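S.,

Sequence below, as promised.
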Amino acid sequence: MKIKRIEFMEDVRDVSNDNIDVLVEKEDGSNYIVTVGTPQDLLEEMSQEKTNFIRPGTPMIIVKKLTKEIVTEAIQAYGEDDGYWLKLHHFADSIDIYVLNKLEAEYRKERKEFAILRGLEKLQDDISKLEKLDNLEKSKLVDRLDKLSDELFED
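The prediction came back faster than expected:
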């Protein structure tokens, strides 16, 4: 992603302990707004809220210090790979839970298909050894085949 301009949208109070919104203008004229902060700012937030973790919220790009040089370096890195991470930080609050649920369902389906294929490969290995099996082992093999078939054709 080609970045044309980076602009702090507010004054930095403390370069080592603060967070700010930063405007990122791409060469095509479109803009992103991302939050950039320091580790000390996160520690202070936990202290003020009396928690041992940062509560879920808008993603933040973390830098050692809020200087133009360091923030620019970080944003350039987040802009790599067609701006994947920069886009994710900008749009994270806008992603509908439906999208995440759909991704999760697709992931589960892929995992199930992978498990079935793994089972079929193991079954294929066992079938190749079929002549050496006794009746109990053959029965177990048929049971495994039935189970895999049920998984394959359910839903």
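The first strand starts at residue 3 and ends at 8.

Coffee later?
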